[in-house]
Amino acid sequence: MDWKKTVLEEIDKRQDELIDLCCKLIQFPSENPPGDTRDISKFITDYLKEAGIETATHESEQHMFNLLSTVGTKSDKHLLFCGHTDVVPAGDLSRWDFSPFAGEVKDGYILGRGASDMKCGLGGLIFATALLKRLGVPLAGELSLFIVPDEETGGHFGVPWVLERGLITGTAAVIAEPSSPEHPTIGQKGSAWFEFTVEGTPGHGSLSPFKGDSAIVKAAKAIEVLQRLTDMKPNIPEEMRDIIEISKKYVREREKTDVSAVYDHVTVNIGTIHGGTKANVVADRCTIEVDSRVPFGIDYRDVLNEAKRLLLEVGIDAELKPIGFRGNANWTPSSEEIVRYLVESITDVSGKEAYGVLQWASSDARHFRNHGIPVLQYGPAELSTIHNFNERAPVWQVVQAAKVYALTAIKYLGTTDGS
């Protein structure tokens, strides 16, 4: 039996079922916050049960469920297919051209919040796993679906919660996060998010700046000086230089504007500013939230230390409080077996050259690497619509991704009949 050929043919025959599954997943409004995944989790467990797959459910926080399902044969290889059920809020509904939770197909796209990030990828993982079970593919290792509830707000109750408790482990993992069709992401930048509060002295607005000390004016100086974090020079490790140049070339070819500098620079985004009470009162306090991403060759703690030094330079002595994720850049080398098989599978399915690239954001991949599990990300997406209004994903990419997932599982785990 040529299982690879059989599975690819079956996905083609059943692609309407795959697309319908993705649409149904989108129809569950699993926005995070609040992160309630009860309904979508029940739907997934019922779907898998119909395919003969049992699911273990672990509630990590109220109404947040981690789902673990395993098929195949116990061996020294255990592949994890990971995806998250939560999505970012839809936001202002008047700015959508369609209902964000319609989960419908139009003009070759699946429409709705989470289509690209990442319910179509999640649907592909679920469909591919269920199909391998239904066809009786005799996998020579274990394949587990690892479906989590809490990625969009930092992931504390999802992947890290499960791995820290030893509820599942593996020898490799694939996350269905959105990517380019021929370029899975094999590494992510680090992160150093923080907030700080600038103190001032209140006074009557009619007397400013002669009386009172405006926290907002001081915060403006802080914002300006923090832009100099991008001047930090990374000491790029020798083993990272080639993949960084490859990633830069990829971005220059794909993006309408050249943002390739993000790969070897610290980035700084002033995300929110909260300060003052009224227009006619000198502000006594202003709080700023900062999203800083850290390249290979710089420790995130050095970024925080430099931020502290820069603030002192303009007379601001403030505590940098942690928010979100803090950690260093991390990657899975292209030589890892799971990377080689998935990249090879993309070429098998698409007929195009495929290779891994680095991502300038961060993701759940870091948690797998922290536990010694090689991991990469690959999923269908219209990248410009992620976290945006009118989110969508191309149908052809959804089908291609499902094929890549199935092929990767067969190649990595092998089959007991040796086919």
From TrEMBL:
For biological process, the GO terms are: lysine biosynthetic process via diaminopimelate
Cofactor(s), by name: Co(2+); Zn(2+)
| Designated name of the protein | Probable succinyl-diaminopimelate desuccinylase
Which reaction is catalysed here? N-succinyl-(2S,6S)-2,6-diaminopimelate + H2O = (2S,6S)-2,6-diaminopimelate + succinate
Q: Which UniProt keywords apply?
A: Cobalt, Hydrolase, Metal-binding, Zinc
> What are its E.C. numbers?
3.5.1.18
InterPro entries listed in its UniProt record? ArgE/DapE, ArgE/DapE_CS, Bact_exopeptidase_dim_dom, Peptidase_M20, Peptidase_M20_dimer, Peptidase_M20A
Sequence similarity: Belongs to the peptidase M20A family.
List residues traversing the bilayer.
Answer: none
Highest taxon of source = Bacteria
Quote the SUPFAM superfamilies the UniProt record gives.
Bacterial exopeptidase dimerisation domain (SSF55031), Zn-dependent exopeptidases (SSF53187)
Identify the metabolic or biological route this protein is part of: Amino-acid biosynthesis; L-lysine biosynthesis via DAP pathway; LL-2,6-diaminopimelate from (S)-tetrahydrodipicolinate (succinylase route): step 3/3
Keyword check for Nucleotide-binding: no
Q: A GO molecular-function term, please? A: succinyl-diaminopimelate desuccinylase activity
Instruction: Indicate the enzyme's highest-level EC class.
Output: hydrolase
Write one Pfam family the protein is assigned to: Peptidase_M20
Instruction: List, for all copies, the residue spans of the domain called Peptidase M20 dimerisation.
Output: 186-313
Q: Kindly indicate whether the keyword Ligase belongs to this entry.
A: no
